[in-house]
Amino acid sequence: MTTRHTVAVLGGGSFGTVIGNIIANNGHSVRLWLRNDGLAATINSSRENSVYLPGYHLSDRLYATTSLRESVADADIVFVAVPGKSFREVVQQLPRMISGDSQVISLTKGIEPGGFRLMSQILREELPDNPLGVLSGPNLASEIALGHVSASVIASESPSVTRCIHDLLHCEAFLIYASDDMYGVELGGALKNVYAILAGVGAALGFGENTQGMLLTRALAEMSRFAVCLGANPLTFLGLSGVGDLFVTCSSPLSRNYQVGLALGKGRPLEDILATMDQVAEGINTLGLLKREADSRGVPMPLVDGLHAILYEHREVEDVLTSIMHREQAQDVEFVIR
Ligand SMILES: NC(=O)C1=CN([C@@H]2O[C@H](COP(=O)(O)OP(=O)(O)OC[C@H]3O[C@@H](n4cnc5c(N)ncnc54)[C@H](OP(=O)(O)O)[C@@H]3O)[C@@H](O)[C@H]2O)C=CC1
Ligand SMILES: O=C(CO)COP(=O)(O)O
């Protein structure tokens, strides 16, 4: 017999809503936690998240609440889908509300400001006894909502977590794959946001497909170089959460990070773009943290340096992009298995 779970999803933005709804459609009871009373009431009455995913019908098994305590009460699985900068303040409240057996899974593709902490590290620090995991992959929320077949990776050190989350989420239009490399999977999801901004800039400037292909491939090389330095397995980047997500986010106008890049490439100032965005583009925050971390570890990341120069040193986009590609390492593939 299939186990019926009680699931909490913390964060009622586009991704939290779509993941909660997949789980509810799979027959489980879901409570979506959000901050906005009016939106919670609308979701419960009209079965639609009119702010973040208008037109997407929500299951009767999904119930929205603004009470964190109510959302996690009796939940045996808790997903966290708030931006990286708010992640700790939310999970810090959980130890006094959930049991040590509840699984806690990050959906967030960001880095904590003020250092270089991944979401799984924050979970480990705040919830040392709970089974943990991260879910990441090429998962544009609005495409999932439209029913396009998508796939994601559940990564955990615990095989029972990967099995359970697979069974919870897997369905005809949302396929779940497993990994035991939590760091590699979440680094792929967080780092690709930076390169999606760069790809958007390139698209605005009319870069050819050859140039875009070069940028994407060199981005993968750069990400792998950095991840190896942090102890992740570079081969993880060949999977859905690495090359899969890098490809989709660097080529889709639906990506918020790509949209930031497009606007920058058209000459809009960053402050102006961010002031008019009502959804999170994690790559902006990640860029500064990544540059500082790479510099302090001595990892060459010319694309990161270039984007940083465009955003914060007010350098001309075309000059920067040309000069960074010429100072790239000559080696094509750096990590080979012999
Ligand atoms: N959208 C996508 O396609 C995907 C997103 N992700 C990742 O999921 C994470 C969430 O993204 P997404 O759902 O798109 O974001 P959205 O911008 O759509 O929504 C963000 C949500 O987080 C809430 N929130 C923000 N700050 C806080 C806080 N301090 N406390 C509680 N809630 C807060 C917002 O609430 P409020 O409305 O009250 O501001 C809102 O519900 C990001 O890390 C993103 O990279 C991952 C895969 C796909
Ligand atoms: O992570 C995503 C797709 O996998 C969503 O990307 P954006 O946050 O850029 O919209």
From TrEMBL:
Keywords: Cytoplasm, Lipid biosynthesis, Lipid metabolism, NAD, NADP, Nucleotide-binding, Oxidoreductase, Phospholipid biosynthesis, Phospholipid metabolism. Pathway: Membrane lipid metabolism; glycerophospholipid metabolism. SUPFAM superfamilies: 6-phosphogluconate dehydrogenase C-terminal domain-like (SSF48179), NAD(P)-binding Rossmann-fold domains (SSF51735). One of its GO terms (biological process) is glycerol-3-phosphate catabolic process. It comes from the Bacteria. The active site is at 192 (proton acceptor). NAD(+) binds at residues 11-16, 141, 256. It is found in: Cytoplasm. GO terms for molecular function: glycerol-3-phosphate dehydrogenase (NAD+) activity; glycerol-3-phosphate dehydrogenase (NADP+) activity; NAD binding. Residues 181-321 form the Glycerol-3-phosphate dehydrogenase NAD-dependent C-terminal domain. Gene3D superfamilies: N-(1-d-carboxylethyl)-l-norvaline Dehydrogenase, domain 2, NAD(P)-binding Rossmann-like Domain. Substrate binds at residues 109, 256-257. Residues 7-160 form the Glycerol-3-phosphate dehydrogenase NAD-dependent N-terminal domain. The keyword Phosphoprotein does not apply. The keyword NADP applies. InterPro entries: 6-PGluconate_DH-like_C_sf, 6PGD_dom2, G3P_DH_NAD-dep, G3P_DH_NAD-dep_C, G3P_DH_NAD-dep_N, NAD(P)-bd_dom_sf. It is an enzyme of class 1 (oxidoreductase). NADPH binds at residues 14-15, 35, 52, 109, 141, 256, 280, 282. Sn-glycerol 3-phosphate binds at residues 109, 137, 192, 245, 255-257. GO terms for cellular component: cytosol. Its EC number is 1.1.1.94. PANTHER family: GLYCEROL-3-PHOSPHATE DEHYDROGENASE (PTHR11728), GLYCEROL-3-PHOSPHATE DEHYDROGENASE [NAD(+)] 2, CHLOROPLASTIC (PTHR11728:SF1). Belongs to the NAD-dependent glycerol-3-phosphate dehydrogenase family. Catalyzes the reduction of the glycolytic intermediate dihydroxyacetone phosphate (DHAP) to sn-glycerol 3-phosphate (G3P), the key precursor for phospholipid synthesis. NCBIfam families: PRK00094.1-2 (NF000940), PRK00094.1-4 (NF000942), PRK00094.2-4 (NF000946). This is Glycerol-3-phosphate dehydrogenase [NAD(P)+]. It comes from Pseudohalioglobus lutimaris.
